Amino acid sequence: MKKFFTIAILFASTFMSFSQSLGYQDLGILFSQNDNNGSARFTAMSGAFGALGGDISAINVNPAGLSVFKNSMFSGTFNSRNSDTQSNYYGNTLTTQNQFINPSQAGAVLVFDSAFSDDWSKFAIGFNYRITKDFNDSFLAQGNSGVATFTEYPLDNNDPTIAYNIADRQRFNNTYNGEISEINIAFSSVHQQKLHIGLSFNFYDLNFSQRSTLTEFNSDVDNNELDANLYQENYTIGTGFSVNTGFIYKAHQSFRFGLSYQTPTWFTEISEVTNILDNEGFYGDTEIVVSNNDLIYDNTSNDNYPEQQLIYKLKTPSKLTASAAFVFGKNGLLSFDYINKNFKRIKLSSDYNINFTTENQSFQNDFQNTHNFNVGTEWRFEKLSLRGGYKFEQTPNIFNTLNSNNIIDTSDIEGYSIGGGYNFGNFKLDFSYSDNNRTTSYNFYSGFNVSPTNLTIDNKVYTATLTLAL
Q1: What's the rounded Cα separation, in Å, for the pair 417 and 39?
Q2: Residue 241 DSSP SS3
């Protein structure tokens, strides 16, 4: 019999206390992040388009860039991401390799000559779809902490019961799936060929799941063995909305600067379905086998799967982007974006009496206002273009240690990108390669005196874009 709760019987602050799944504080940070996916030209220059425009993917940086387009166009993008995750748990190192292929972007810009004023000479409308955050990934960690948490067999009839308190090995298998996708509807115009202004409305669709299995291999003093598997899963969906506005000013033929502001994203209803009701021992989805007993303990027998549904709201940080670009005629350009996001302003709330006080206080105490920057360049040789870029994304964690939720912590992200394209006249082909890496710690024994597994994550992304003139 499934259990359904619209009002949580456990407070959110203690709901994840003994869980290996991500807590609400971790999810709040995760759902506030951006992968900067886009066209191959955009990704080759590490997304440094705040003062440039002229690319459909620049809508999510500064919608004013739409009126930089001279003609209407359509573009579609595929990317292939290779993810290598190396785990180190008590001296044991494992590497998990994954590959994912996605249609990461599709959009169109319609450019119109203004019929109302000579000062406002051009008007543009843009529509764009992109994957804002790709969650798909997995890792495996294995080692021996020396700590056994499953020390009893529930079907043990001995008196006293056998204590399987010798830890032989632990294994943790974790898989993420899903994405945040974004649809932009943007408008832009240019005043006297110098000042470009723009506005976009952004609609988000959130789909996230996590499935993890913690396996303990324990034994007793007589070498009897106990194998315990604790399975946890979390399925989350939601919708959100934000607004982005900005301008680009051509101060000189060779220099322009821009400024844009994106409001927080308001996820007004996030629905989470999980099998985590009580993580104290055997009240999760648990299977336990011992070597000296033919019976198998399984608390999901007779289709008695634990289930709980929670509904809550999330407000992510706003984003301020200041940009500058140097344009060297038709030969090339150099662009710089500075991005500021205040993760202290993340807020969780609910209309169902769920208490997020602890998580919201942690956002105030454990996270910071981040300073990020992207640098990009492009050089043209007739119809051939060559590009490169670099990005730095500061960690939202104040200290380079596990945060107070004790589940996950992430370091700064650094990455570089290269690419090129060829203009065939009525259509263009662009390609890019980007590489970014970070280190993180994941504690799947939250609440116990066990060190986290250290993860080194390397993402290599190959992107291809076809652009058609309309």
Answers
A1: 13
A2: strand
Q: Output the six-digit token pair for 118.
A: 């000579």
Q: 253 vs 164, 231, 329, 333, CA distance in Å?
A: 76, 61, 8, 12
Give the predicted TM-score (pTM) of the model. 0.90
Q: Which residues of the chain have pLDDT under 50?
A: 1-18, 278-282, 401-406
Take residue 437 and report the two structure tokens written for it: 């890496």
Predicted local confidence at residue 381, as pLDDT: 95
Backbone φ and ψ of 248, nearest 5°: -130, 130
Give, in order, the Cα–Cα distances in Å from 363 to each of 13, 140, 368, 410.
Answer: 13, 29, 8, 15
Where do the structural domains in the chain lie, given as residue ranges?
12-469
259, two tokens: 């400024």
309-361 pLDDT, tens per residue? Answer: 889 999 999 999 999 999 999 999 999 999 999 999 999 999 888 889 989 99
Residue 259 and residue 249 in contact, taking contact as beta carbons nearer than 8 Å: no
Q: Is 234 helix (H, G, I), strand (E, B) or coil?
A: strand
* Topology adopted by domain 12-469: Porin (2.40.160)
Cβ 268 vs Cβ 240: under 8 Å:
yes
Q: How many CB atoms lie within 10 A of CB 296?
A: 12
- Full DSSP string of 249-262: EEEETTEEEEEEEE
Instruction: Yes or no: say if 220 and 163 are a contact pair by the CB < 8 Å rule.
Output: yes
pLDDT score recorded for residue 402: 45
Of 70, 220, 177, 55, nearest in space to 128 by CA = 55
